[in-house]
Amino acid sequence: MGGQVYEPLVKFIREQSESTDIFCFQEVFRSSRKDIEISGKTRIHILDELATALPDFNYVFHRVLSGEDNSGPVDFEIETGQAEFIKKSISIISSGEVSLHSYQNCTLPHKHEFSPNNFGYSRISYGNSIITVINIHALTYNPDNKLGTPERLEQSRLIKEFALNEKGSVIICGDFNVLPNTQSIIMFEDSFVNLIKKYDISTTRSKISPWYGTAGEIKFSDYAFVSPNMEITDFKVPDVEISDHLPLIMEFR
């Protein structure tokens, strides 16, 4: 979150960049404040630092929230959101974001127990195909037990509806903040391939998660779904300590 495990993260990303066409990141920060690097355990320029580490990639940034670092509100300009880094040899056709939840449109009396969120997307030309990459950082509760709720079910419905209306193939990936046996995840499986399930992944959380090895440890938060027509040649979740979440690595052709 916010590049807190910075050196291992950047080393891993640089190593992977040789064989990677698309990176999807969540909880990415950027700021015009130039006299500090870290605020509230947040690397506030991590978007620019990722761009420096990935010179052969263009990026698309999707703002979710302004005015807060990892510790809460700050008195300087800062934004957080999702980002896709796409190799410059690949054409980006279009991109955008869809709001799934905000403080402003929430009518629940406990609305400040949620974090605002959206999903970002980039449509790319890949070979002779069009692929829409949907980058998720889904609803977070405070406190959070990753169980299904009406709000999470509704956001999954909106994501699925958007994906099914895309003309080409679709990749849906990221942090869904929900367990695999909830309807919020199961509802995708009649239209998309759940790679976490297909490849029998045992966890998507790393050893540096604050709950690792405790009674409160939750092993799943991140997922990848693809259109049935996509040829997936490999999918893995390596055990590397670059974040409290493990990276999802998909190979397709």
Descriptive notes:
This protein is of the alpha+beta class and 253 residues long. The protein has a single domain (6-252), classed as Endonuclease/exonuclease/phosphatase (Deoxyribonuclease I, Chain A, 4-Layer Sandwich). It has 5 helices and 15 strands. The chain has helices spanning 6-17, 46-53, 150-164, 183-186, 195-198; strands spanning 22-31, 38-39, 42-43, 57-66, 68-69, 72-73, 78-87, 91-101, 117-126, 129-137, 169-175, 193-194, 222-226, 232-236, 249-252. The strands form 5 sheets. Strands 8-9-10-11-13-12 form a 6-stranded mixed beta sheet. The longest helix has 15 residues, at 150-164. The chain is globular. The two termini are 30 Å apart. Residues 103-113 have low confidence and may be disordered.
Order of helices and strands: HEEEHEEEEEEEHEHEHEEE
Helix segment count?
A: 5
Assign an overall shape.
Answer: globular
Overall residue-averaged pLDDT value: 90
The total of beta strands comes to 15
Main sheet makeup? 6 strands, mixed
Q: What portion of the residues fall into strands of 2 or more residues? A: 35-45%
CATH class bucket: Alpha Beta
Query: What is the CATH third-level topology name?
Result: Deoxyribonuclease I, Chain A
* Alpha-beta classification: alpha+beta
Q: Strands across the major sheet, in which order?
A: 8-9-10-11-13-12
Terminal Cα span: 30 Å
Q: What is the alpha-carbon Rg in Å?
A: 17 Å
Going by CATH, the homologous superfamily would be Endonuclease/exonuclease/phosphatase
